[in-house]
UniProtKB/TrEMBL annotation:
Domain of life: Bacteria
Organism, as annotated: Streptomyces niveiscabiei
Protein name from the UniProt record: Uncharacterized protein
Amino acid sequence: MNSPVLQAFPAFRLRPPADGSASAEVVDANDVVVGQVDAAGGAYRGRVGTDVGPRRTDAPRAAEDVGVFHIALHATADAEHQPYSSVSEARAALSPIPLQRQEIVDSAARAYFFHALRQPHVAAILDGLEAIVREHDASGTRGGCLRVVRLLDQVREPARALLSDATGDEREWMAFPLARLLAFTELATARLGATASKPPSDLDGPFPDPHAADQALATAFRTYRDVQSGTRTLASLPDDTLHALAALDAAAAQLPSGPCAKNRADCRAAASALDELATAARSVEASAPDTAPEVRALAQELSAIATDTSARLESTALLLEDAGRHGSVRTILSALQDAELGRETDAGTRSVRVDDTETGPIRYTENGRWTGPGITDPYHSPEGAAAALINTFRARQATARTRA
């Protein structure tokens, strides 16, 4: 019998009802039943245990509600721990999370009446969602992805606690809104963690445009502000921690106040300032007492974001060095869109594949540049060298088509 895969949750399938049964089953990748879809009065509702989703006009949509409940109660399947393919995909996946706020507020008002916003878990969820809104652009570096993961935990933990505690009418009102919020945050957490480990091309290397660099710098500065806020809540700190915090303040004061990637000089100046900030953050982390775990965690987060952003600005400066030879940065990046530039090996080489053809590899030279087959004047950036090989390959293809 055909069991279609759920579009929103490919790890689950909808198994049609057996003869004489009004309920279809939702099964996971191991063919284990995780919930049912009940049909009545021309509508469909997903059900997991005693929790029931809203009325839907079609069975697949109700089956997705079963997937929502299952992920909320049991977390994501391993198959869903895949990195995002781009920064834009990561941001698109995060966008629905803050949109759940109004439904949480409305459902809490029905469940807890006038005390809804004073319910501790509800208040914590709303605070966490506000933080997610502020950090919408943070996923532009690997460290930024991990920052968003930490902030998602500040939504997931109270949501999971409230779902666990709610009973009776409270659960009837809150179960599905909480489950949907948890499903979104669970999936985003799993995939952002994987993305930080295996970043796509636009999360590593040079920034694709100056605005992306400015967003990453702004994320570093917000994280610095979080470290400051964390220390203000502490009654006292050791002298060495206070000295480290003073150095952190001084380093943050050197960060650019405007665009940071207009040209090579700006990129390198910003990268240098971020290196100082990362060093100071590591000193704060090392000197913070055991009684200040949040400050230590935030300082570690700041160090990672500053280091990632600095490395990307350095790569951007190298790319700008090569822009004149190709016409512009846009020309280089456009060439790379049609190819796959591999990661650097221990031998200092990177593959350059166009379709199924290896046009490289390119390699790192002793004088700090990049070269490859047919390149007589090495490039400053791996992207510049790769674009040269790609353009040569495309030109040969065009010539061959003309002759044919």
